[in-house]
Amino acid sequence: MNEVIRQLHERKSVRIFEDRAVPDDVKNEVIEAAFEAPTAGNMMFYTIIDVTDQQVKDQLAVLCDHQPFIAKAQLVLVFLADYQRWYNTYRAAELDVRKPGVGDLMLACADAVIAAQNSVVAAHSLGLGSCYIGDILENCEQVRALLSLPEFVMPAVMVVYGYPTRQQLDRPKPVRFGRNHIVHENAYRTMEPQELLGMISERGDKETVEQLCKRKYMSDFSLEMNRSVTEYLKNFGER
Ligand SMILES: Cc1cc2nc3c(=O)[nH]c(=O)nc-3n(C[C@H](O)[C@H](O)[C@H](O)COP(=O)(O)O)c2cc1C
Q1: 143 Cβ partners below 8 Å, 6+ apart?
Q2: Which H helix or E strand runs over 46?
Q3: Which of 22-29's residues contact partners 24+ apart within 8 Å by CB, and which partners?
Q4: What is the mean pLDDT of residues 6-34?
Q5: Mean pLDDT of 193-206
Q6: What angle do CA 159, 117, 49 make, to 5 degrees?
Q7: 182: closest CA among 197, 199, 198?
Q8: In the chain, which ranges are continuous DSSP H helix?
Q9: What is the pLDDT of residue 239?
C-alpha cells in the first residue's frame, strides 16, 4: 500500500479537537490543496468561506442541528456551490445569457464537494482531523442570511478541522459495507431484501435498521434539510 492509499484508509472523521490553533501555513496548505482538485471546465464553480468569527461559528453550530463541536473547531470552511460568479462574469462581459438552472447548480455542487475532499485529504496528511457537516443544508433561510449568500450560491458542505485528541486518534474507524454491495458491474443491480438486511448485519452495526431509519431518515434534521433544499430549488426551477 503506498503512502497516499495508506492515508486514505487511515483517515476518519474527528469531532473532538485539542485546544490548539491551526498555524497559518497549515491552513493555507489545506485551502490551496482544495484549489488543485479537478473542477468542471477548470471554472472553479465554488467559493470557500473561511469562518473566523467565533459568533458565526456559534450560530452555525446551532443552525447545523445543534452540533457544539462546530463552534470549537479551529478551522471552519464552508464550501459553496457558486454559479453566481460566472453568471455575473457573463453579464459583466455584456453577454445575453440565461439564468443558471438546477443542472448548473448540481455541477457546481460536485465541484465544491470535490474541492472539499482534497482539503480533507491534505488536512489528514498534515496531522489535522476534519469532519464534514452535511447539516449546512438545513435552515437555508438563516444560513443564507448569516453568510450573505446571493441567489445562485448554495452551501454544498461545511468541513470543520482541528487537531484530534488522543481519544479520537485511538477511536476505531467505522467499518464500510462490502464491495460486492457497492460495486455493480455495467448496470445497476437492485438488491433483494435479504441482501439489503444482510449487508447491515455483516458490518456488525449495533443499531437496528429501524433505529438507524429513525435517527437518520425520519429525523427532524433530515426533514428540515429536505424542506430547505426543496424551498431553495423552487426559486431555481421557475427561471
Ligand atoms: C456529506 C457528509 C455529511 C456529513 N455530516 C456530518 C454531520 O453533520 N455531523 C457529523 O458529526 N458527521 C458528519 N459526517 C461524517 C460522517 O458521519 C462520517 O464520514 C461517517 O460516519 C464515516 O466515518 P469516517 O469519516 O470516520 O470514516 C458527514 C459526512 C459526509 C460525507
Answers
A1: 60, 63, 136, 149, 155
A2: strand 46-50
A3: 22/74, 22/75, 22/128, 22/161, 22/162, 22/163, 26/126, 26/128, 27/75, 29/122, 29/126
A4: 98
A5: 91
A6: 40
A7: 199
A8: 3-10, 24-35, 54-63, 69-72, 84-92, 102-125, 140-146, 166-170, 179-182, 193-202, 209-212, 220-237
A9: 56
Q: Hey, which CATH number is domain 3-174, 1.10.357.10, 3.40.50.200, 3.40.109.10, 3.30.365.10?
A: 3.40.109.10
pLDDT attached to residue 205: 84
Backbone angles phi, psi at 140, to 5 degrees: -55, -40
3 state SS of 104: helix
Distance 141 CA to ligand 1 centre (A): 23
Atom of ligand 1 nearest to the CA of 136: 8
Phi, psi of 178 (to 5 degrees): -65, 145
Q: Is 134 in the pocket of ligand 1 (CB under 6 A)?
A: yes
Dist. CA 224–CA 233, nearest whole Å: 14
Tell me if residue 154 falls in helix, strand or coil.
strand
Please tell me the distance from the alpha carbon of residue 162 to that of residue 20, in angstroms, as a whole number.
8
What are the extents of the domains in the chain?
3-174
Contacts of 166 (CB under 8 A, 6+ apart): none
From the alpha carbon of 15, which atom of ligand 1 is closest?
Answer: 11
Would the CB of 57 count as within 6 Å of ligand 1?
no
Give the per-residue pLDDT at 9: 98
